[in-house]
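[09:14] KT: can someone run the structure on this one? pasting the chain below
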Amino acid sequence: MTLGAAVPLAGAAPPWLEFFTVGGVNVRTVTMGCVLIGLSAGVLGCFAFLRKRSLLGDALAHAALPGVCVAFLLAGARDPLIILIGAMAACWVGAISIDLIVNYTRCKEESALGMVLSVFFGLGTLLLTHIQQRGGAGQAGLDRFLFGQAAAMQRDDLTVLIACSVVILVVVAIFYKEFKLLAFDRQFARSLNRPMRAMEVLLATLIVAAVAIGLQAVGVVLMAAMLVTPAAAARYWTHHLGVMLLIAGVFGALSGGAGAYVSYMSAGMPTGPWMVVAASALFGLSLFLAPEQGVLSRWIHHRRFRKRTAEENLLRTLYRFAEEGGPSATGYAPADFQRYRAMTAAVVMKTLGRLAGKGLVEELPGGRFRLTEAGAAHAAGITRRHRLWEAYLSEKLAIAPDHVHDDAEAMEHVLTPELEDRLLETLTETEHDPHDRRIPPPEGTESGSRGQDKRREDR
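[09:31] RB: done, structure tokens below
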């Protein structure tokens, strides 16, 4: 199950260089086979992942075991091509069984997957036990299809792997548009008179082939991980299918190479499980470090959004002070803000410090603050969005005026200019909010601090 490590001599090449130069024909054969398995599984796994059928690979991998055993019984030897054909045939029977169960019984797909997985795997275990009890040298190592034995790969196995992998990648490239429609909008594809049923059969055949060629290295138990994990990791890095296929293929290939490397460098380490561990490590890195959807990136964006929300809340509070005719010339102390905002004095001071650094507020003697001209214009825009949303909730959704503030408080920070234009198109009253306060005009037409309601002045 392992490649085995050579003991490096003093002054010898580094281990990673020795792996590529000294490892020998068998090491290069196993490495190439693992890389091809990871590449093919990663690419095809994207379509299963996007169609929310990731467990299909798990069911088919377990369903392949009786096919492997039947092929061995018929051939009388572990011929790689015969074993591959038997595994693919069993996978196909399993896939058809799943469809029949879903279409002609009251069972849902997840139940069908579980039944096919357990029944076929149980049948395969019985056949495997029968073969082992028969004895004979030909059955040696057949049980390692359960967990894989990459080190047993020979040139004939590699030839089959190369042929199948090339066919899989070429077919995916040729039918990329059809597979894309199948993954995202099957009904639209049908409206274009595309043969989507044939495409489903073709995609299932490719997945069956990918599962079958990976059995010897990874085994039926872990093969599903090589279909799902690289695709799931790649999804964190992009929103484009073509890029996702490329990334998933690279992640799968790296996982295969890493599994072979660890198996070569550490005696007793199996290749297949380490391929899965490497793929899981790449998933973990993607989960935390992906630029847009990773945990770290989302935490940073959330932290920035909280800071921006606090800044905009204080700017709108200063605008409210100016509307109420407060002592803007002398500025406002942190305690004044705390009457309207559930913020500690430390948070208020830190937020005001950031606003002062941006030139939106100015600090006066005594630790008091007031809006600058730029800050007044920015605060007027925030207030405008808040009051437009209050007007929409009151006018279009018939929510009482005293219940619209909290929702508007949340929406004012995410309303885009496009949404603001849509609000203006739907509202009949765009001058005053439900509390009869003036809605500031668009930014640039007036300074927020001078935008007083004329009707309020007349009172």
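[09:33] KT: thanks! The CA atoms of residues 40 and 165 lie 6 Å apart.
[09:34] RB: yep, looked fine to me
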